[in-house]
Amino acid sequence: MNNFLQLFKIPETKNRILTTLGILLVYRLGFQVPIPGMDPTFLNGQRDTGALFGLMSAFSGGQIGQAVIFSLGIMPYISASIIFSMLSKVSPAIEAVAKEGAAGQKKINQWTRLASVPIALIQGIFIFTSIFLPHQEMIAPNMQANPLALGIIVVVSILAGSLVVMWLGELITEYGVGNGASLIIMAGIISRIPHALYTIQEDPE
């Protein structure tokens, strides 16, 4: 504990820790922003994503199945990173770029960011068609008769939220402490601990 407190005596380290905590706080506040067109009554009663999407949510730092703008978390960026990591093993062209050192890694990072956009778009469409659309109780009454407009709003909101999360992760990596994507995933897992403990206490079987 004393060693940890010693870190705050170093100005640069203290600033990086506080910056990391501040960005993570902003990230968690994003989960209080609902997607337009969702029913507030449903959102107030929604506390769990269910077994189907719970694991995906935990390892993306998001809350898939809940109608908030950060539903996808960092998942699109992670998916793009995995894709380029695999391509660097099978594609000679990408492998050659990866071996260029810092310049090559910078190019791949940029490609990863760009690839995150279509991935988030596809995942946003999937969430809308497979989760929101079949469950009309999630949708505000005035939007239930306009599925096309609602779909555009939902997908654009989820896409924008995912890009913001990716940006926050990069801010942590550059100005904070540690890898931003990993810390965002950790924050998502930690945020579920109180609810998990409450669920275990209420239903020990």
Quick overview:
By secondary structure, the protein is an all-alpha fold.
What are the main properties of this structure?
0% strand, mainly alpha, 9 helices, 205 residues, single chain
How large is the share of residues in beta strands?
under 5%
What's the overall geometry? Answer: globular
Low-confidence parts, pLDDT < 50 over ≥5 residues?
Answer: 47-56
Q: What is the N-to-C succession of helices and strands?
A: HHHHHHHHH
CA-based gyration radius: 19 Å
Oligomer: single chain
Mean pLDDT: 80
Which class best fits the helix and strand makeup?
mainly alpha
Question: What does this protein look like?
Answer:
By secondary structure, this protein is mostly helical. The protein has 9 helices and no strands. α2 (11-29) runs antiparallel to α8 (147-175), α5 crosses α6 (92-98) and α5 crosses α7 (102-132). The longest helix has 31 residues, at 102-132. The two termini are 37 Å apart. Mean pLDDT is 80; it is low at 47-56.
Secondary structure layout plus pairing:
Elements lengths: L1 H5 L4 H19 L10 H6 L4 H9 L16 H16 L1 H7 L3 H31 L14 H29 L4 H23 L3
Helix pairs in contact: 2-8, 5-6, 5-7, 6-7, 7-8, 8-9
